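Here is the promised in-class demo. Please do not try to memorize the tokens; focus on the logic of going from shape to residues.
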């Protein structure tokens, strides 16, 4: 549906190993690796102009939380859709100081990406593709 020469800006979750209740509550279908996303865009006929991971600053926290989550879910015996939703809402709760730190970190990442550089890892991927004219 994109016009010839049109631009697609895409963000998707990264790293299949980070799959969790958060993805289920967000109705994600999969998590991608950078190379996979680039290949899929190219196969769909897009000229891939740039790709990068982002949200690198929270990766360590998310990775640790995802590695601990299955144990907590098993211990509590909770794996329902409602439980996933409730946990996700709790994860998205705004904590003012933490939110300010996150805004500052993501601002640095945005400036880094705007300068044309890529991030080596992150919880999400972004891609810019162009439909050929």
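The designed amino acids, position by position:
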């Amino acid at each position: 549906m994109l016009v010839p020469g049109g631009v697609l800006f895409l963000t998707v979750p990264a790293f299949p190993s980070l799959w969790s209740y958060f993805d289920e509550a967000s109705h994600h279908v999969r998590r991608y690796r950078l190379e996979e996303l680039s290949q899929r865009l190219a196969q769909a006929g897009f000229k891939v102009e740039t790709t990068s991971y982002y949200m690198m600053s929270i990766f360590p926290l998310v990775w640790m939380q995802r590695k601990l989550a299955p144990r907590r879910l098993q211990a509590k015996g909770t794996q329902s859709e409602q439980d996933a939703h409730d946990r996700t809402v709790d994860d998205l709760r705004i904590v003012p100081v933490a939110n300010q730190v996150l805004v500052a970190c993501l601002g640095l990442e945005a400036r880094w990406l705007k300068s044309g550089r890529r991030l080596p890892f992150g919880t999400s991927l972004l891609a810019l593709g162009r439909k050929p004219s």
